[in-house]
Amino acid sequence: MRGNAGKRLAKVKVIKNYIHDESFFGAGRVYLGWMTVIAGAVALTFGPSTMTAISFGLFVPALNKEFGWGIPAISFAATIMNVTIVIASILQGYLVDRFGARRVIVLSIPVFGASLASVSLLSDNIVLLYLAYALVPLCAVGLWPASYLKATSSWFHRRLGFALGLTNAGIGIGAALLPIIITYVITNYGWRNAYVLLGTLAIVVTWPIALFWLQERNAPDNAGAMDQQNATAGQAMNLRDAANTSTFWRSMGAFALLGIMNGGIAVHLVSILIAEGLTPQTAGLLMSALGVSLVVGRIGTGWLLDRLTAASIMTVIVLGSAAACAVLAMGAGANLGVATACACVFGLVLGAEFDVLSYVIPRYWGRQAFGRIFGVVFAVFQFGAGLGAIGLGYSRGYFGTYAPALWALATLLVISALLFSQLGAYRFGGREPIPEPMVPATA
Predict the structure, then answer these.
(1) How many helices (H) and strands (E) does the chain have?
(2) Distance (Å, rounded) from C-alpha 170 to C-alpha 210?
(3) 33-215+232-421 domain in CATH 1.20.1250.20?
(4) Least packed by Cβ within 10 Å: which of 119, 179, 341, 350?
């Protein structure tokens, strides 16, 4: 009897240590948190962040050539898209906190895929382009990064930064892979077939993986043991409490300014490099260089977050992106090496942004309202992205050059870096209670 009790206690100790260590494999099983990381990374590779936001600029030259709408007019669709993402992200935050990330993701994938493929039906009425980029983000309501990052964060504490970085790396992989695919398809088969391909990939690749691999440890329908413990121990804030802290508003300002750069560069980088003297094919390929750097930024930032403060990491890389904007503003992008270096610097900061946001939420405000807080900050970020997209387009149309807007971006990024540097110490620092494992039943 005592022997059986001893074995049971020993097994509990092994499982407990395994949960606390967050190893990929231990206690005779694969840790489901890492399965969720893989599922999230693949889904983000073929999700709306890459297929609509990042890839939008690749379609601008083709749409301009076929319909003659002009770059500023086409860029306005990106602004509409980002404004719609603002609405979608706030709605998403409520939905994932209320119903759970997995449920919202699974329902959103087929709707998003179908809506994206339908953009191939555009006619020469530019209003239809605006309508399409207003509806597609709403159809993808559950597929923006917050859902996957909330699911991932529910499994990790000590390796939270690294796990979030790996999940977010999916966006970088998509940013590296999709420009090659899209550029090839547009060049050889037309932009309409490119939209059909993207919609098909969104459904065929991500839906099965989300169905069978993605899990959420603290889903609302299974009691959310960790969230209950945190709320009882005073270890988490709701959105209203978080909004009463100065750190929240510094974060809002820093991410809003960062969003202006994100939207402007994501939509216009190809056009900027073409204007500085590179061929469309070379400029398109440099988007892949940005994507590779984005992957490095995702994983590297995640690893660093478990060792350094978010404030120090973001201060350095945001200042680097300010320098890259200044270099392009001076017209140095005609040099392939310089253009590649700038694209890689942009990739690093684009790779860090959501790693940092998803990491600082539980560290400053706890996990109770992760979806709502992420949704609000992400909404502000996307609003900035919309301003950046239209601002760079206006600069090109009014001044005949991107230089004034690039100098403005460099200035705003310096301010963003200063705000990040003032975030201060973590409130919780990863000390939230970890649920104890259940005692395994005897055979």
Answers:
(1) 18, 2
(2) 14
(3) yes
(4) 341
